[in-house]
Design goal:
By secondary structure, the protein is mostly helical. Helix content is 75%, strand content 1%. The protein is built from twelve helices and two strands. A two-stranded antiparallel sheet has the order 1-2. Helix 4 (81-93) packs across helix 7. The chain is globular, with a radius of gyration of 22 Å. It starts with a helix and ends with a helix.
Length: 272
């Protein structure tokens, strides 16, 4: 227990306390609300709005497609090679983010990418491509790449927890397949699905490296605005504005993870 507490203290509590103290500290070391008030300015509010939109969009697409893929996986026998292979691949792809993922998409759909050149040869389009991959729609597409396998991993245990006896009981009582799914299975799976979707939202909201590799100009989302605060030293006329931005992200992720823990507790009632 002691090593775990030391780990949590060094890598979670100390950075969090540092961010909170820095957000409410003035340049001369006294207490100040100036940096927190600056969060309501146009630039950080636009970055927060874009971050929320990016996280919600990638989480929505990832949770729906991931849940469908998880259902296909769970219908295969537990010893099936396909089931074990898909589960293993999802475990790898869920962690396949950052610069490597960004480069893979740039080499495929970016300026002069493989698919871009093929489309240019086939349809006579400009082989330099367009900039959509480096904007919000492109980020949603790239983020979905690791959101879908993550959804498979976190939602698969809930699907596996559906007991065959429940379906047999419903059929014996005269329920059709549609009635079983809409009146028995889906209500049971709803907390697990929403909790998994919230986890995907937090995963996208906190992601940085992939967006940083794709977006070199500007700071359309909050993590990139923190980068600007750290590299430019002065943002919006205030030094160390990154503390307040980081506190904003901590609050959003804390709220999302609290809801996730509540939904996870509801799921564990029938999953155990």
């Amino acid at each position: 227990m002691l090593p775990f507490l030391v780990f949590v203290g060094i890598f979670l509590l100390v950075p969090t306390v540092t961010v909170v103290v820095g957000a409410f500290q003035s340049d001369d070391g006294g207490f100040s609300l100036d940096r927190v008030r600056a969060l309501t300015d146009e630039t950080p509010m636009r970055a927060l709005r874009e971050s929320m939109l990016l996280s919600f969009s990638s989480a929505a697409v990832g949770s729906v497609l991931g849940a469908l893929l998880a259902y296909l996986v769970v219908t295969a026998p537990p010893t099936s090679v396909i089931r074990r292979t898909v589960t293993a691949v999802c475990g790898v792809l869920a962690q396949f983010g950052g610069v490597t993922l960004a480069f893979a998409w740039m080499a495929t759909l970016g300026f002069g990418g493989l698919v871009t050149n093929l489309l240019a040869d086939a349809f006579g389009r400009d082989d330099s491509g367009s900039a959509w991959l480096y904007e919000l729609p492109g980020l949603v597409l790239v983020y979905t790449y690791f959101q879908i396998p993550l959804m498979v991993i976190v939602f698969l245990p809930a699907l596996e927890g559906l007991r065959p006896q429940w379906r047999e009981a419903a059929v014996n009582l005269g329920a059709s397949t549609r009635q079983y799914w809409f009146q028995v299975a889906l209500p049971l799976l709803r907390p697990a699905f929403l909790g998994s979707a919230l986890l995907l939202f937090a995963n996208a909201f906190a992601a940085y490296a992939t967006a940083a590799a794709l977006v070199s100009q500007g700071a359309p989302i909050t993590p990139l605005l923190i980068r600007s605060a750290l590299t430019s030293e002065i943002v919006l006329g205030q030094a160390n504005f990154g503390y307040a931005l980081a506190l904003q992200m901590v609050v959003v992720v804390a709220v999302v993870m609290t809801l996730y823990a509540w939904l996870l507790k509801r799921t564990s009632r029938w999953l155990s």
